[in-house]
Prior knowledge:
With 78 residues, this protein is of the alpha+beta class. Helix content is 23%, strand content 29%. The longest helix is centred in the middle third of the chain and has 18 residues.
Amino acid sequence: MHNKIQIKAFWDSDALVWVAESDDVPGLITEAETMEKLIDKLHILIPELLQENEMLSTELQEIPFDLHSERKETVRCG
């Protein structure tokens, strides 16, 4: 694995959680109440899932990833 992993996160306003998923890490879908907690979970899940899917090189010491987040809101006027 040589490129950065791309992860998409979006705010689920019904469940009030951030949801993250990635096509680069098979099986990755997780959620957390805050972005910080989501990132903490990703630090654990990414290497675990890559190892389970036999996509993790034994000499690899770090796994870079980009987290792209989106949150849509509305504002009431008046």
